[in-house]
Amino acid sequence: MSELPDESGATRGGGSGRCVECGTELAPAILLCPQCGRLVHSERLAELHALAQAAEEAGQLTEALTERRTMVELLPRGSKQHAAIVAKIEQLAVDVRKPGAQSPDRAKKESTEASRSKLAGLGVIGLAIWKLKFIVGFAATKAKFLLLGLSKASTFFSMLLSVGAYWALWGWQFALGLVLSIYVHEMGHVSSLRRYGIHASAPMFIPGLGAMIRLKQGLPDVGTDARVGLAGPWWGLGAALASYGLSFAFDSPMLVAIAKVGAWINVFNLMPIWQLDGGRAFRALDRRQSWLAAGALGGAWFFSTEGLLFLIAIVAAFRAVTTPKHQKGDRGVLISYVILVAALTALASIPVPGMTGK
């Protein structure tokens, strides 16, 4: 995932004007009146606080996080208010990771749990029907989200440009499948950022280099950064699995090839360097966990004999050696990383019908 600051998304500065309390002239980016100490955006902060409170009471943690993060941008660093909101954001970020925390509201959550209990009484058939309904609803929600990204002109036209560039090399079918795979990967990042209440743009494609998104707010900690980073490969894995599944329905070696290449693109993104997704993940691991991740990569290379995995394992071992002894680790990030390595390697190792080798 490539991330750049959004030049148009800054929210900290107010417009030039005068303090409504004492009439002192204020600079464009000032947040606190130097004369009377009044918060320049006090009315907006009160509004955001009320919205955040209401969202929390309704169990809408993502919405609450979004409002709190906007509040931080309007408060001067070092102030008690800024520290209090930062602490609240950190707590909400922990809560949002908990299973079942992302219900639209508590009433709906309770209604869903009640429905589960009723369906359990109907036996296996009733439960299966409920699960199918849940899966279809989940897929429809994600499909709507993916289509929403395509509604952005910058995303749509940069995608077309990329398809055209790859078309000349591999034909339109493979080019389209490859670009869609990259798009799904990037939208995984966007979805995760939204989950943590962080504003981000839709993907912008750069032919030959992939795609990037623009962050409108900073990531608060390495744990959140790692989860946002790994969300891309998780969605990429889903796209590759979907392509592989469709290859059976349409008896299409092309779809198998798209699944295979898509999986390898996501494997490459797990390399623990720079701003790649793997680099973000390793920043949340302690030394022991880094060695375990390197071992998983080594095992994946041993069973697949793919040179790329050997290279990634070497880089991971170097990262493990250079990880500070007292760096705290995130067990959830390690588990997610290892599962992705195993699943993506298995999918990337599938043979393509009509081709020799892998």
List the helices and strands and how they pair.
Blueprint: E1 2-5, E2 17-18, E3 25-26, H1 42-57, H2 61-73, H3 80-97, H4 106-121, H5 124-150, H6 153-170, H7 172-195, E4 204-206, E5 210-215, H8 222-250, H9 253-269, H10 277-282, H11 287-304, H12 307-322, H13 331-348
Q: If strands are numbered along the chain, what order do they take across the biggest sheet?
A: 1-5-4
Radius of gyration: 23 Å
Shape: globular
How would you classify the helix and strand content by structural class?
Answer: mainly alpha
**Mean of residue pLDDT values:** 78
Major sheet = 3 strands, mixed
Keywords, please?
globular; 13 helices; 358 residues; three-stranded mixed sheet; single chain; 5 strands; two-stranded antiparallel ribbon; mainly alpha
Please describe what this structure looks like:
- This protein has a domain at 253-358.
- It is built from 13 helices and five strands.
- The chain has helices at residues 42-57, 61-73, 80-97, 106-121, 124-150, 153-170, 172-195, 222-250, 253-269, 277-282, 287-304, 307-322, 331-348; strands spanning 2-5, 17-18, 25-26, 204-206, 210-215.
- A three-stranded mixed sheet has the order 1-5-4. Strands 2-3 form a two-stranded antiparallel sheet.
- Helix 4 (106-121) runs antiparallel to helix 5 (124-150), helix 7 runs antiparallel to helix 8 and helix 11 runs parallel beside helix 13 (331-348).
- The radius of gyration is 23 Å and the shape is globular.
